[in-house]
Amino acid sequence: MIGFLEDVAYACRTLRRAPGLVTTAVLSLALGIAATTAVFSFVNALQFKTLPFDDPASLVDIEETSATELCAGCAVGTSYPTLLDWQARARSFSSLGAYQETRLVISGTGEPERVPAGFVSASLFPTLGIQPIHGRALRADDDRIGAEPVALLSDMLWRRRFGADPAALGRTLKVNGVEHTIVGVMPPGFRFPEFAQFWTPLVPARHDQKRTDRSLGIVARLKPGVDVAAAAGEMRVIGAAVAAEHTATNGQWSVRVRSLHEDMIEETAAPSAVLLGAVAFVLLIACANVSNLLLVRASERQREISIRVAIGCTRARIVRLVLAESLTLGVAGGAIGLTIALWASRAIVASFGMEAPYWIQFGIDWRVFAFCAAITLGTAVLFGLAPALHASRHEPQAMLKEGAGTTAGQRSRRLAGGLVMAQLSLALLLLTGAGLLIKTVVRSVRFDPGFDTSRVLQGDISLPALRYSTPASIDAFASGVLQQLSRIPGTRAGVQSFVFFGGFGARSRKVTVEGLASVPDGASPRFYFAVSPGYFRMLGATLKQGREFSPADGSDVVIVNEAMAQNIWGTASPLGRRIKFGDKPWRTVIGVVRNINGGVIGARANPFAYVPFSSEPGQDMALTISTSGNPAPLAAELRAAVHAVDPDQPIEDIMTLAAMFREQAAPSRFVALLMSGLSVVALALASVGLYGVTAYGVRRRLREIGIRIALGGTAADVVRLIVGSSWRMIAPGLVLGVGAAWAGTRVLTGVLFGTSPTDPAVFALTVVMLALVASLASYIPARRAARVDPIVVLRAE
User: Fold this and answer.
1) How far apart are CA 587 and CA 569, in angstroms?
2) Among the four 229, 655, 741, 779, which has the fewest Cβ within 10 Å?
3) How far apart (Å, rounded) are the C-alpha atoms in residues 29 and 270?
4) 615-623 average pLDDT score
């Protein structure tokens, strides 16, 4: 240990005499370590932090899954009757809680608003180990049919609507028009499920749920000594028994049990893996940079090292000496990198642009510090190992001879060239991935639906089921609001709701087309829209064929978009053809509208169909109004029109369609932003690496360059010579990078909408960009070499 500390002290003394090398190496490492640590801090919050519940390792999620039904292979919740079967038969759990995500309208104290909420069983919060900080929890007596309606508030809602007044406990609040007594306030920050701020008992709301309504989430706590595998085995047996007893509703369904943490991180696993892979590449590029610098240093110290070996220094001692230098550089780079990462991690969270669920806690914790320490030590060994082994191979007799070192220098140059090629390949892979993501975001933001989305304002409405339980009552509400809005001069208004039809792969939920034996895959929409007469005219959307809906239309007509028409009928006109959704009545196609909604989730044009609102009115609807002027003042008009029909009904999320499109592109935009930042760092590091190797090569060839100039060579000849030598590294690096990108960008398929993972334009642009930057990095030392004075150089020799 003492010997190693002496080596570190010696390394510090010798590195002081090479400030340029130290500065370049430390900054390269600092950038790589900072980028890696900052992104890891973000991924750590998404993937690795423990859930903020009591003993989270014993919490599991129980779901139903089917290979053929609903969403074909994905897992969903369960129904209330099936939940009762599980509760009666399962023995692996000490407690089991159920919940359903919802949004409830609260009124009676201030402006009505619709808040994220949950119907929860009385056992849910005890299962999670969470208790109210004020008042009491839900009791079994609350969670039964006929019980007095009660509710729990989040700390956020309690402070916003009641000013954190303790007297709020015991007061009543209207929930979807029904008075509920407030009995408790949950801890600060707590929101479960997802973003819930308000909770009411499950059974009074969902006791009449059918077995086919699989909308309940189930959380259970394992008994001591029972693991996830044992619980899963028991639930598979129970699921098979329930399926045998209820073949019509459960025959195609089985039960899956997994840890609650695994369930909650599933959606973020793929982007987290992409980001971690990207920063790993950046770190490797930084390591290659420093390895090249140390190779240069080792080559320049050949005589010193040979003397050490000649007087008895062992190969292990030489390796330790060089590793001491790399460790010194690594610790310095790690310290600066951690400082930068602390700032960058806050910037990443600030740019996230989306509200995170309760259990995702951003910030720096011990894992981030441990990770930074581990990669600092790991990279110090990684970038120092090749130079250390290279330096230890010297034969002292050969190296001490006059002019010796040529062969060793050639070996170091080949190794340095190989590292540069690897840097360029990794940089091209990152640039291509970032380019694909940027193209996706640009397409989604610039999507042209055929009308000015900045002039269209939209707000969401969710009608309470108790007050609006019939299609006639829903249609009457929508008609009343549209009548109120029709009085505003210079505007047009419409209403839209969507009807869920089926998930991808649901065999029984394809559109049936009269005259066709089968419908092409991808031609059936997951849902279709119910819209008011004049809806497309209100938007300014173009009808390609046929006509719009009129007030006289009933439930036997339909309008399809271009994508659906082309997928089913090709170039033939669909007008007059008949289709039906599932087992619903036949509808005749009366019009074809331009693709409007494809840009909501990307540039991909999805099949959509539209039916008259009066034929299938939905409680969840979007109220839309368009104008030729500034739409912002119309937000108040929308609220006034809704309150004129129903004073207790809120309208929320009022924004222009342009803003809505931007908001829905936010996840892809965020990943694209991070990837772009990492790509810039990778490009800079790769350029510095190429510059360093080229500059070192120029220094070793000064005698040759001086002779060439003395014999009549021009500056252009020297530049071509040096840049040409660099291109012997650049060209293979680009070729390898294109191959790596061609294979690697396929992992982005899930987040690329309307963009191929092998988009030739993106590939061509990134190759040209990297080639230009690499050429510039080699041109600078080449230009400097072209200006040398041959007399000065040859006299020095």
Assistant:
1) 16
2) 229
3) 27
4) 88
